[in-house]
């Protein structure tokens, strides 16, 4: 079983390899990948460095070119495939049918993996990709249950990859247009379903409100945890009752299911989070490396260590409730089996502070991660400067003189 870890930059890629990843997946610095964030992803020069580092350590590099080509931009997607192939990618993660055909014809020696964005959820869909494009692997959507994953593994000849840890999207990936309808920005190419410039947090007498393009998503009372400000994770009034009408915000952790995934011959477990910090990548990779090795050695007696679960809980989108194999889809709706135990929200103070500053900042890049912010309390600009003063190495990487957040001179002597 392969451990596949995310990387949004070179430090994260190196952290993944150094902490046990068998392979790393990355994206190019443009809208050909589904995590098209400012300050994230790889230029051609950085991609060359990434390929060199990964191959020196005898690991593999997967490159995601997994958005759908625009009518006037098809050539750009072709160039992305060409560059990835020519610089030494071990696998191309693709969703667009034309891109799959192009890669299969031009670079048949490079593995083609069907992206989660393609939403291949059944045997016939998987066989279609295998028959027409000779794909080596299919990444399954996160909405599938463990039972559905096992069923697909039994009937398809294609290797399967599942998301094992990280954020959980309740939609069938590649098929959600909620935020596009509301903001006019496509999640296919802008990299997020809640672009920061459309997000507003406002304190009112009724509580803290989250809005997306002025549409009220949720309202939180003091001490209540907040979810990401996306339409699908909001609470709405339906027939006079307020609840999560689509589904409660959840995150994914399948560590307890590792023996079942191994028994089903799942080829790869994937860690979500190309937008996350090197610290996140290193800690999550280390836990999963230890767990996979332990499970391989003795799958019958495998039990996740409490220290592993605590580490993963601290790396998730906030506090972890008691482990469970099921979660309520929504009030008055049927039970739904999740692939793994669910993890819950970020504290509202963290979200509020970040989005308020992000929306008004003139920063070119905003770095998130354990090195500069805390999930356990709201982190202010002054705190970041204080931490930067303590560490010249961290500050030199994270701060630029033109950033408003890091404009003040730093006293290295302290």
UniProtKB/TrEMBL annotation:
InterPro entries: Peptidase_U32 (IPR001539), RNA/ubiquinone_mod_enzymes (IPR051454), UbiU (IPR043692). Its cofactor is [4Fe-4S] cluster. Pathway: Cofactor biosynthesis; ubiquinone biosynthesis. [4Fe-4S] cluster binds at residues 169, 176, 193, 232. One of its GO terms (biological process) is ubiquinone biosynthetic process. Keywords: 4Fe-4S, Hydrolase, Iron, Iron-sulfur, Metal-binding, Protease, Ubiquinone biosynthesis. GO terms for molecular function: 4 iron, 4 sulfur cluster binding; metal ion binding; peptidase activity. Belongs to the peptidase U32 family. UbiU subfamily. PANTHER family: PEPTIDASE U32 FAMILY, UBIQUINONE BIOSYNTHESIS PROTEIN UBIU. Required for O(2)-independent ubiquinone (coenzyme Q) biosynthesis. Together with UbiV, is essential for the C6-hydroxylation reaction in the oxygen-independent ubiquinone biosynthesis pathway. Forms a heterodimer with UbiV. This is Ubiquinone biosynthesis protein UbiU.
């Amino acid at each position: 079983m392969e451990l596949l870890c995310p990387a949004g930059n070179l430090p994260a890629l190196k952290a993944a390899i150094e902490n046990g990843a068998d392979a790393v997946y990355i994206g190019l610095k443009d809208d050909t990948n589904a995590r098209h964030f400012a300050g994230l992803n790889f230029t051609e020069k950085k991609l060359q460095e990434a390929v060199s580092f990964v191959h020196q350590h005898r690991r593999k590099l997967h490159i995601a070119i997994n958005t759908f080509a625009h009518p006037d931009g098809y050539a750009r997607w072709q160039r992305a495939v060409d560059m990835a192939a020519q610089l030494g990618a071990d696998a191309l993660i693709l969703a667009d049918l034309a891109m799959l055909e192009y890669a299969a014809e031009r670079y048949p020696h490079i593995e083609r993996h069907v992206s989660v964005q393609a939403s291949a959820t059944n045997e016939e869909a998987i066989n279609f990709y295998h028959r027409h494009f000779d794909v080596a692997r299919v990444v399954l959507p996160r909405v599938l249950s463990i039972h559905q994953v096992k069923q697909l593994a039994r009937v398809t000849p294609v290797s399967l990859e599942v998301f094992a840890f990280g954020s959980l999207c309740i939609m069938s990936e590649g098929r959600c247009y909620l935020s596009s309808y509301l903001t006019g920005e496509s999640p296919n190419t802008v990299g997020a379903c809640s672009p920061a410039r459309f997000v507003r947090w406002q304190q009112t007498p009724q509580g803290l409100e989250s809005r997306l393009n002025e549409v009220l998503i949720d309202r939180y009372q003091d001490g209540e945890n907040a979810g990401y400000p996306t339409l699908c994770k909001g609470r709405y009034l339906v027939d006079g009752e307020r609840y999560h009408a689509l589904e409660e915000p959840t995150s994914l952790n399948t560590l307890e299911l590792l023996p079942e995934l191994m028994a089903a011959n799942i080829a790869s477990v994937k860690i979500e989070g190309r937008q996350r910090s090197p610290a996140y990548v290193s800690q999550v990779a280390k836990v999963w490396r230890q767990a996979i090795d332990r499970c391989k050695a003795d799958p019958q007696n495998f039990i996740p260590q409490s220290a592993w679960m605590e580490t993963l809980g601290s790396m998730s989108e906030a506090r972890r409730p008691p482990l469970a194999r099921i979660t309520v889809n929504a009030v008055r709706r049927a039970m739904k089996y999740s692939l793994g135990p669910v993890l819950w929200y970020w504290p509202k103070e963290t979200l509020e502070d970040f989005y308020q500053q992000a929306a008004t900042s003139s920063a070119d890049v905003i770095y998130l991660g354990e090195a500069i912010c805390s999930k356990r309390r709201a982190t202010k600009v002054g705190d970041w400067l204080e931490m930067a003063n303590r560490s010249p190495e961290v500050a030199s990487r994270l701060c630029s003189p033109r950033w408003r957040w890091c404009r003040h001179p730093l006293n290295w002597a302290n």
